[in-house]
């Protein structure tokens, strides 16, 4: 009986994990189509910030308090444009364990993007979205 329970929990855990897929436009659009996803920035120093999108709301998480507000259409376009440019700068030679990187994920899929660009581009996005002022 205990052995069956262990096997059941292992299967549930494996199935519940998001499957990592290549950083292609098709895979990212599949994640976006779910309308419930997270765009996460992991700095090389270990700091993490994320933007989650659920039901027309943006949820910003960082070392500051979590912040939630409605998202506007022009912001959606700005974020999509930022992500598209970041994907185009993805480098297969950079290692996400030592370089800043992005993760786009939902419950089913996860894409890791390691762009050949400086961190201040993400900071500029946060400033444009007025999320750098969250206290």
Structure commentary:
This protein is α+β, with helices and mostly antiparallel strands and 135 residues long. It is 36% helix and 27% strand. It has helices spanning 2-16, 25-33, 73-88, 120-128; strands spanning 19-21, 36-42, 48-54, 57-61, 67-70, 101-105, 109-113. Strands 1-7-6-2-3-4-5 form a 7-stranded mixed beta sheet, with helices on one face.
Question: Any descriptors?
Answer:
135 residues, seven-stranded mixed sheet, 7 strands, 27% strand, globular
SSE inventory with pairings:
Layout (H helix, E strand, L loop, with lengths): L1 H15 L2 E3 L3 H9 L2 E7 L5 E7 L2 E5 L5 E4 L2 H16 L12 E5 L3 E5 L6 H9 L7
Parallel strand pairs: 1-7
Antiparallel strand pairs: 2-3, 2-6, 3-4, 4-5, 6-7
Could you write a compact summary of the structure shown?
It is built from 4 helices and 7 strands. The chain has 135 residues and is an alpha+beta fold.
